[in-house]
Specification:
40% of the residues lie in helices and 20% in strands. The protein is an alpha+beta fold and 274 residues long.
Length: 274
């Protein structure tokens, strides 16, 4: 199977990464690379043969090719195919301290990267790959320090990935809304984040959470408002702004509807409970 082994003692090192699109039909090059290859296809299909085994990698699928093993194309890759790629090298030298008496050996862990994964469209793995490559081309001055750390994190998530453990769509939406509670609720932003229609997401969320996405968004805002009222000296207007309301009077009405009392009264009763 030509598996690639990931080790937490000797993490991999990035060589190159990016996104490509086929402007014309072509065959995968014939080579024996000195690096491992991750291919993740977003549109179309990649056809590649490794060590006599043919692989067809369609949209939402990932394939790993092992360093030092010949791979090449037997079937034509069609125009319009798009894919992400990462080239990375095994850092196979263990630290000199890793002898039999080294206590760090007790924490040594390794895992085989899957040869091929399917069903990754709109998954957290797909989003991690996109963000990793965006980061590679960013202007972050710390990039050279962070890029291999992030590579190890990405490959670790792939190594332990199990689509049965992938959170439900409603749980993913909850995470997104919780992280963006101070921003106005936006159907367009949700569609851009999840590549799904708002109507579909609204129906799934309502079925799985027994509330609307707007109701959940408001509940997260109110939870944070209660926290700020209890734990800070911020004014009601400042709390309103911090949780995303530009109108303090409207915030107070929303808070009263949620808690049965105005923000100042809630703050007083919270202090009295101490």
């Amino acid at each position: 199977m030509n598996e690639i082994i990931l080790s937490n003692i000797c993490p991999p090192v990035l060589s190159e990464c990016g996104q490509l699109a086929a402007a014309e039909p072509f065959y995968h090059m014939d080579r024996t690379a000195g690096f491992n290859v991750l291919i993740y296809v977003t549109d179309g299909a990649i056809y590649v043969t490794e060590d006599g085994t043919d692989y067809a990698v369609g949209a939402g699928e990932m394939l790993f090719l092992k360093s030092g093993i010949r791979h090449y194309g037997r079937s034509e890759i069609q125009k319009g195919t798009r894919w992400y790629y990462l080239h990375f090298c095994d850092n196979i030298k263990e630290p000199k301290c890793m002898d039999e008496s080294c206590s760090a050996r007790a924490f040594k862990k390794s895992a085989a990267l899957p040869k091929k994964l399917s069903g990754l469209k709109n998954s957290r793995i797909e989003r991690m790959i996109e963000r990793y490559i965006d980061y590679f081309y960013s202007d972050d001055p710390m990039k050279l320090w962070n890029i291999n750390v992030r590579l190890f994190e990405l490959l670790t998530q792939i190594a332990v990935y199990n689509d049965s453990e992938e959170p439900h769509l409603s749980d993913k939406i909850c995470v997104y809304l919780s992280a963006n509670y101070a921003k106005p609720f936006s159907a367009a932003a949700l569609e851009k984040e999840f590549y799904l229609s708002y109507k579909y997401m609204a129906a799934v969320f309502k079925r799985e959470k027994n509330m609307t996405m707007q109701q959940y968004h408001t509940s997260v805002r109110m939870n944070n408002a209660r926290r700020l009222l209890r734990s800070t000296f911020m004014s009601v207007s400042e709390v309103a702004a911090a949780v995303g309301y530009s109108d303090a009077l409207y915030f107070s009405r929303m808070f009263r509807a949620s808690e049965g009392m105005c923000p100042s009264a809630y703050r007083k009763t919270a202090v009295e409970r101490i």
